[in-house]
Amino acid sequence: MTALAERWWDTTNTFHLCFGEVTVTPLDFAAFIGLRVGGEPIPFDPSTDLDDTALRWFLGRVPRHSGGVAEYGQFTAYWDHEPADDAEAAQMARAYLLYLFGASLFPLRRSRVHLSYLAGLVDLRQAGRLDWGGVALCTLYCFLGAASRGVGDTIGGYWRVIELWAYEVLGMFPPENTCTNPHLLPCALAWGKEYRRAKERRGQVMTFRRWLDNITGVTVHWDRWARLEADFLPRSREVIRSRVLLECPLGWQWYLGDRVTRQSLGSPELIVPGPLPPRVQRTETHTRAELEQFTVPDTDLERYLWRTLDYATYKDRYLATSLGVERELEWRIAEAEARRARGEAGDEVGDEAGGETGARGRGSHSSRSRGRGARPPAGGRGTSSLGRGESSSQVPEAAEASTPGLSSLSPPGSSEGSQPPASPIDPSEPASGRLYINDQIS
């Protein structure tokens, strides 16, 4: 998760890898969780959490809540008895759905759930027509964007999809699996405990970083879901071939199918995408009319593609395709050897000093033997790569880039500007300047 989050670009909601951009598409998400992405928008009502009368109508009682969210564990007490009538049965069903939302589909940190989801549960018979899958995917995009910027130390949303997507699509260290049904749906069931012979791989994050730094497009399963059929997949297949603004209580996030054409259009090669949507990271400034326009899938991707431009040139200029893991490892080894050399030199000096003081009858213990040996680098474990004692001269431009986001990733001549800025994570920078989010990297 850490190694992948480091490569997430929150202006485009894609992973930047050696061969270009990929993402968790609406079809990927639907295939894993069995929930359609696409449908009628959910009428989120920010005032729901403030109106106790409305909460009592929805749930039969007023839950403990603050700032529009509530701990979902309290809802288990709402269905511990038989309902007296249909109205109470509906209230119990809403409480159960809120618990389900908080525990799996839309989890927030500290076991909480947004109460604004109740706006989509007014008529439970019509709730299935709403775009719950799109809300779940948008929530995941929001948390991935926050993690890529070092905000918080956990990923909320249905984060398990990221791991399963890495296994199924990227082929990234999948554990041994005994499931023999390639068409099992939802696909997350194929990774249940009954099918796993070995535990999921856990190890040094540098192992996963190195793997991602060397992955090629040849190993990616671009058409993983081509032969799957289910009633929740056709709509998701339409959305994947579009640009659409997804909505959730945390905000709005774009899915841009033109940036991942091998996934969205099934093209044999990636194609240079056009300019980003307007105010891509300031979606809260859109008017209601703009939001209504952007939340309808725009399936005319062809007008956003620059087929005449060379993708390799575009990729090298505008995408952060490598984090320089090999150079980072070489730098760490050199630092360790330097510290070891300094420690050995300190021991020799301490022995000489101890010999002199011993000759004077005042003991012969070196400073290292008293527990004050060579001082480790500042920061130690649990800090970012910028907190290990490097001077500012060692971390040039990369240290100035506080986040991995670009305001524009458009080819020359686009409406976003003829000369977009270079990637803040430049592969030519020294490895000591990398902005990792691993050992709490920011």
Describe this structure in words.
The protein is mostly helical. Helices cover 33% and strands 7% of the residues. It has helices spanning 2-5, 26-33, 52-59, 86-105, 132-148, 160-170, 205-214, 233-240, 261-264, 288-294, 311-318, 325-359, 397-400; strands at 8-9, 14-17, 20-22, 69-71, 112-114, 243-248, 251-256, 272-273, 305-306. Strands 1-2-3 form a 3-stranded antiparallel beta sheet. Strands 4-5 form a two-stranded antiparallel ribbon. It has a two-stranded antiparallel sheet with strand order 6-7. Strand 1 and strand 2 form a beta hairpin. The longest helix is centred in the C-terminal third of the chain and has 35 residues, at 325-359. The model is unreliable at 352-442 (pLDDT under 50).
What sequence of helices (H) and strands (E) makes up the elements?
HEEEHHEHEHHHHEEHEHEHHH
C-alpha Rg (nearest Å): 26 Å
Major beta sheet summary = 3 strands, antiparallel
Helix content: 25-40%
User: Uncertain runs with pLDDT below 50, 5 residues or more?
Assistant: 352-442
| Estimated structural class | mainly alpha
Average pLDDT reading: 78
Physical arrangement of strands within the biggest beta sheet: 1-2-3
Based on the model shown, name its key terms.
33% helix; mainly alpha; 13 helices; 9 strands; 3-stranded antiparallel β-sheet; 442 residues
Structure summary:
The chain is mostly helical and 442 residues long. It is 33% helix and 7% strand.
Write the layout of secondary structure elements.
Blueprint: H1 2-5, E1 8-9, E2 14-17, E3 20-22, H2 26-33, H3 52-59, E4 69-71, H4 86-105, E5 112-114, H5 132-148, H6 160-170, H7 205-214, H8 233-240, E6 243-248, E7 251-256, H9 261-264, E8 272-273, H10 288-294, E9 305-306, H11 311-318, H12 325-359, H13 397-400
Antiparallel strand pairs: 1-2, 2-3, 4-5, 6-7, 8-9
Helix pairs in contact: 2-8
